[in-house]
Every structure is written in C-alpha cells, then in structure tokens.
Amino acid sequence: MPTPAKRIAILTSGGDCAGLNAVIRAVVLHAAELNWEIVGVMSGAHGLISRPPQTMALDVTKVDTVMMRQGGTILGTTNKGDPFAYPMPDGSIKNLSQDMVEGFRSLKCDALIGIGGDGSLDILLHLAKQGNFPIIGIPKTIDNDVCLTETSIGFDTAVAVATEALDRLQPTAASHDRIMILEVMGRDAGHIALEAGIAGGADVILIPEIPYDIQNVANHIKDIHKKGRNFALVVVSEAVRTQEGSKMMNELYGGQKRMGGIGHVIGAQIADLCQAETRVTVLGHVQRGGQPSAQDRLIAAAFGVHAVELIKAGKLNRMVAWSNRKVVDVPLEDAVKRNQQVEKDGSMVRTARGLGICLGDA
Ligand code: F6P
C-alpha cells in the first residue's frame, strides 16, 4: 500500500556544527522516495515567529552532493533566546512560544524534525507538547553531551580538528622548547578534550568533570622536563575549574554569557610554576566549521533516513540515536532529561590514566 503523502517541517537549532547539511540532505532524499514534501524552517524555531514564517521549500534539486560536504547549515540556526523567556529589544522578557506554535500550525505540516543539542531539543519538545504536534529529534553537537546516544552529529569532526591542532602544535613546541596549551570547546562536558587529547598525544588533559590542582599539572610537566623532554602539550576544556573555583565566563555583545579564556589563566600559572615558556591556542569556532568527517556524514545519513522512517511508521516523539554500531531511537523525553558528561571512571578516563596522562587531580 503506498504511504500517504506527508508534509514535514525541518529546522536546525542551537550552535552549528559540521554535518548539519548532510543530515538535511538525507531527510530530503529519503522523503522524496516517499513523495513527501519537506519545508525548511529558517533560523531555528525563530523562523516560526515571522508572519508568514520564514521557510525554504526543500526538494532534491536543493540538496546536491556539494551540500553534504559543506559545514554550517543552509537553514541557519540560533543559540540565542529561549522562546519561553525571550529577551525583547526593549529589555523586557516575553513568552513567544505560542507565536511559534501558531507559526508551525500555519505551515500545515504533519510533523517537525528538529536537529539540535540537548538544550534545543528540550525547547522543541516543550513547543511540540504545547502545540500538540509530533516531533522527531536528531542529536547534533560538537560537545557530544546528548544523552542516550553514543555520538551526535559534529562531534567526530570537532575531535579531528582538535587532534590536528595538537599534531601541528607538537613540532613547533619541540622546536622552541615550549609548553603548548590548547583550549577546546565542549561546554560542561570534556569529551572533545579527552578524546582529542588522547589521540593527539597530550601530556595533560583538563576536563570539567575532574577538578584540577595546578600544582599537580606543574609537577607532571617538571617531571617530563627532568626525564629529558623539552616540550609538553596541555589540552584544556573551556569549562575546567579547580575544586574551589568556578568556570570562566565572559559577557559578550548583547549580554550573552559564554565560556572561554581559561587556557590563558592556566598557561600563565604553568609558566610561573615550571619556569618555562608557555603559549596558548584557543581553538574556538574552528571546531564547528569546515567539512564534516566521513563518520559525521555517515551518522548524518543514518539519522536522516531513520527520522523519516519513524514518521512513516507513526513512531513519534522519538530521538534517533547511535548505539552498538547502528541507528536506533529512544523517547525524546528521556533524552533531554539530563546531559551526558564524561564518566569519571569510564573507559576513556582509564585509557588516559593508563597512558600516564595527567588529568590534574594527581
Ligand atoms: O554547544 C556548542 C558550543 O560550541 C560549545 O562548545 C560552546 O561553549 C558554545 O557552543 C559556544 O557558543 P557560541 O557559538 O554562541 O559562541
């Protein structure tokens, strides 16, 4: 029996990452096989506030093979402004959720596919409940902190970028007898730092889940010097802190707060304690842009196809996920309950310790 024709809305929400275009393409291609229509919503759920909502008709002619290789998202996205408490230009806070729900209804779509991190997926689930419309979540974030999935779109590329940075820092560190600090993103999860640190041969990896003591870090580096090596590589997650300290935040234009800059603080302390030349690289948004890795493209393809299959099967309000080498799905409600940090005695932490890498706590 032919599948009844459907019209599906899709949007990307939260910070961008590599692989978003690849997943949009996969959804459009699989929907086209079923003769379904896909409507792209622009700028995350914010595109639903404008009247008419800002959208882009997505058919196979819009998603050529170039698109899956490109970073960013053709739909645009935003990680500013919770619709339930939206900061208005006059300084007031307004709940715009009903405007978004009505915007979605005006599109006359049967379901929404939301591609987002834990925060965005939580917001989209709340909107879907308020508007009583079906939703499918697709996890994406370089931070890899979405629960109930082993990986999210964008993480593999970010780890590859951070690992390449260490590959590039190592020879220059060795040539100049320097200690190189690499600050990476990841918000409150240390997955990028830990995995890139191990893959890139770091001597010290500091992650938010394990408070560090700068004296332990300095002792480890002094030991390396004593053994005759003239350089060291230190990877620092943006949200690291000492036991008593707090993470470093900066206020940006418009009052937004973001993490960043702790690498410079730690770099100055290490230079002082080790009496050695120390340089700091803050990798920043380089981790989010650029071509998606092969693995991110594969995961994006599997997630996109599965999201459409779930709607076809009437299995709604689910999040696609990666588990044991295959694509699965889990209740979206459960996936957004908490975020997934590095397990303090998990396999990656034990691997790092087993290699003699200092994690700052000893
Ligand atoms: O969540 C992804 C992420 O890149 C975090 O790792 C980082 O803390 C944050 O977004 C940066 O956000 P923005 O793009 O607003 O600077």
SSE inventory with pairings:
Layout: E1 7-12, H1 20-33, E2 37-41, E3 55-58, E4 86-87, E5 93-94, H2 97-106, E6 111-116, H3 118-131, E7 135-139, H4 155-176, E8 179-184, H5 191-199, E9 204-206, H6 214-226, E10 232-237, E11 249-251, E12 257-259, H7 262-274, E13 278-282, H8 294-312, E14 318-323, E15 326-331, H9 332-335, H10 347-354
Parallel strand pairs: 1-2, 1-6, 6-7, 7-14, 8-10, 8-13, 9-10
Antiparallel strand pairs: 2-3, 4-5, 11-12, 14-15
Helix pairs in contact: 1-8, 2-3, 4-5, 6-7
The structure holds 6-O-phosphono-beta-D-fructofuranose.
Question: What does it look like?
Answer:
A hairpin with a 5-residue loop joins strand 4 and strand 5. The chain has helices spanning 20-33, 97-106, 118-131, 155-176, 191-199, 214-226, 262-274, 294-312, 332-335, 347-354, and strands at residues 7-12, 37-41, 55-58, 86-87, 93-94, 111-116, 135-139, 179-184, 204-206, 232-237, 249-251, 257-259, 278-282, 318-323, 326-331. Helices cover 35% and strands 19% of the residues. A seven-stranded mixed beta sheet has the order 3-2-1-6-7-14-15, with helices on both faces. It has a four-stranded parallel beta sheet with strand order 9-10-8-13, sandwiched between helices. It has a two-stranded antiparallel sheet with strand order 4-5. The chain has ten helices and 15 strands. The N and C termini lie far apart (64 Å). With 362 residues, the chain is of the alpha/beta class. The longest helix is centred in the middle third of the chain and has 22 residues, at 155-176. The radius of gyration is 22 Å and the shape is elongated. 48% of the residues are buried. It has two domains: 7-153 and 292-323, 3-Layer(aba) Sandwich (Rossmann fold), CATH 3.40.50.450; 159-288 and 343-354, Rossmann fold.
